[in-house]
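Researcher: Sequence recovery benchmark, item below. Answer with residues only.
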C-alpha cells in the first residue's frame, strides 16, 4: 500500500492528508462520509482538519480536497483532527494497514444512555485545548472477499482496534467518530467467504490492524507526554 503524503494551508494551520491510489479494480466497504457503504473505488483519502473544525458540509469539503489532489473517479474520503503526518503502517501476510490514531476522547461503545457526551466538554492540558481524536483505518487485502466477508472484516478490524486500545491503557473501545475502509481486488474467481479473526485472512487483518493501532496509541501517549513536559 503506497500512501502519498500531501500538505495544505487551511484555517491558519498546515495540515496533512494521505492518499492511497490503487486505481481501478477495487471493491471497498467503508463507514466514511464520502464513498461509504459497499462500492467500487479508485482511491482513499484521509485528510487532517484543524481542531476547531466547524464546516457543516464535510462531504463537499472532501470533494474539494480530492479535486485539489488530482483524484478522479469514485473514491473514499475521511476526515480527522489526528496528526495524519504520524500515520502508522503495518502488514501481515499480504494484508496492509494504515491508521491515524487520535485518542483525546476514548469512549465505550455501550455507554449508559444518560452518560455525558465527552465531545461536548473541551479537554485542556496545562491550559491548552487538545484537539479531538479519531481512529481512521484503511485495510488492503490482496484477495477478493465476498460481501459477507467484507462485513466480517470490518467486525474483525474493529475488535482488533479495541484490543489495541485496551492494551495501550485507554479506557474505551474506540472514539465516537472512528472510520474504516477495507479494500479488496475485484478479480475473477471465487471470493474468500470468511474474514473472522480465526480465518486465514481475518487473522491477518486482525494482527495488522492491532499492530498499527497499538503503535499509534503508544505514539499518541508519547506525544501528550512531550506536550506536557514542554509546558512544565
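Model:
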Amino acid at each position: 500500500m503506497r500512501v502519498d503524503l500531501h500538505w495544505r494551508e487551511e484555517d491558519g494551520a498546515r495540515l496533512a492528508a494521505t492518499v492511497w491510489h490503487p486505481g481501478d479494480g477495487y471493491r471497498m466497504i467503508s463507514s466514511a462520509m464520502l464513498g461509504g457503504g459497499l462500492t467500487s473505488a479508485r482511491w482513499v483519502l484521509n485528510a487532517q482538519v484543524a481542531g476547531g473544525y466547524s464546516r457543516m458540509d464535510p462531504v463537499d469539503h472532501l470533494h474539494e480536497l480530492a479535486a485539489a489532489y488530482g483524484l478522479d473517479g469514485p473514491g473514499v474520503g475521511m476526515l480527522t483532527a489526528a496528526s495524519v503526518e504520524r500515520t502508522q503502517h503495518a502488514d501481515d501476510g499480504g494484508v496492509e494497514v494504515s491508521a491515524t490514531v487520535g485518542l483525546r476522547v476514548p469512549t465505550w461503545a455501550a455507554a449508559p444512555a444518560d452518560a455525558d457526551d465527552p465531545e461536548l466538554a473541551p479537554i485542556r492540558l496545562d491550559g491548552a485545548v487538545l484537539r479531538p481524536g479519531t481512529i481512521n483505518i484503511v485495510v488492503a487485502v490482496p484477495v477478493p472477499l465476498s460481501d459477507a466477508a467484507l462485513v466480517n472484516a470490518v467486525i474483525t478490524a474493529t475488535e482488533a482496534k479495541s484490543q489495541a486500545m485496551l492494551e495501550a491503557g485507554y479506557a474505551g473501545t474506540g472514539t465516537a467518530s472512528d472510520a474504516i475502509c477495507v479494500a479488496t481486488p475485484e478479480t475473477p474467481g471465487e471470493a474468500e467467504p470468511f474474514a473472522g479473526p480465526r480465518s486465514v485472512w481475518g487473522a491477518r487483518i486482525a494482527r495488522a490492524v492491532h499492530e498499527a493501532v497499538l503503535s499509534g496509541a503508544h505514539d499518541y501517549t508519547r506525544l501528550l507526554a512531550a506536550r506536557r513536559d514542554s509546558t512544565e
